Amino acid sequence: MINVAGLSKRYGTHLAVKDVNFNIEKGEVVGFLGPNGAGKSTIMNILTGYLSTTQGEVTIDGFNIVDYPEEAKRRIGYLPEIPPLYPDMKVREYLDFIYDLKKVKFPKKPHIDEILKLVKIDNVQNRLIKNLSKGYRQRVGFAGALIGNPDVLILDEPTVGLDPKQIIEIRNLIGRLGKNHTIILSSHILSEIQAVCKRVIIINRGEIIADDNSENLAQKLSDDSTLLARITGNETDMLSALKSIKNIKSVSSLGQMEIGSFDYIIEPEDGVDVRADIFDRVVSRGKKLLTLKDNKLSLEQIFLRLTEVENDKAKQLLKSDNGEITVVIEESEEE
Ligand code: ADP
Ligand code: MG
User: Fold this and answer.
1) How many CA atoms lie within 13 A of 334 on its CB side?
2) pLDDT averaged over every residue in the chain
């Protein structure tokens, strides 16, 4: 349904999207997961024909977005990060306007009625958009995207700025729409994507670093073998002190989390208890061990950390098939 080959986008000298490739089948619900600035909106704007490519090809249902823009665009409903709503229009009036703009062929009234019901905004159809809550306004944006019954929905961070109750409502709506649409949804929050998408494409610094189903990713990202230590004193000295302990595979610093001390993630050799050795080493350096505990990172934390390392390293880590990945990156020069 959606075919992206060798896609790159340059803004001036900045390469915001680098050689991105993916195919999305009809009916898939796919999440674009990546931190702010990763390139998610850029890719979405290209898919919807709002932005030109620097390189590469995009086809929607077989129609190349450059050669057949009308055919391609007709198949897409787009909800941009900030939906272009007209605050002084009433909801119904706005949807009528979008209907005209999109030159939709089906009978107007029943079509809009159906969408109002589906998105659950029929009760506010005569209210001015500016008087609606943010959650309702977002649903009006959804309704606009649904006009013309496009097969594909592209939703850019649809829950940003909503409260938890509104987030759940939007999620449920996406769940309902996912039954008969192909959907791409972006977010910088892993749990948000996991809640609605079977497949997750992780984008970081303009590149795809993973494309997998969410259970696989969760399994690859889970990590239960490391320790978290908070230790007073100098970071560089302590890193080398910890790294020289027997049976420690890797150590990395998380930075200063409390004044005068640093947090370290320590990965021991499998099954070896290194806690006493860590304590002794810290004491022998005249420092204080403020915390030492199992480091059960949330998937969210691991995802964030993954996006902080070099993309090549992240890809390599995610590819490992042994079911465990270490997101801890050694800063040592030995490699
Ligand atoms: P995301 O949606 O993942 O947060 P974006 O696609 O908005 O990421 O941005 C990707 C990168 O491209 C960022 O570094 C951003 O600063 C840059 N960028 C986005 N839009 C423009 C633009 N119109 N001009 C120049 N740089 C841009
Ligand atoms: Mg964005």
Assistant:
1) 9
2) 89
